[in-house]
Amino acid sequence: MMAIKWTKELSVGNEVxxxxxxxxxxxxxxxxxxxxxxxxAALAQAFEMLEDRLHVHFxxxxxxxxxxxxxxSKHKQAQLYSLKELRHMRDELLAKNCVWGDGTVD
Length: 106
What we know:
Blueprint: H1 15-37, H2 40-67, H3 73-95
Helix pairs in contact: 1-2, 2-3
């Protein structure tokens, strides 16, 4: 798997959110890198950092949505689903103690 790269097309037009998205892409790349290196300690740390930053990002998005009267309910559901899937993937990978097939990140 190649690293995810930020492009202008990913911009939502809000400096704060765009900056957070760039950071989240970097943290996601850290997860992928740890998987490729089969480094369980780095993987656990990368997942923890990604989840922590996602929480902060979701709070910030919600504040902006409320301030602009944006209907946030569907977006909130998508965020909760994303966190659930992230935790599931983390738990599955860490339970394997870095013993997984080469296609794990494909």
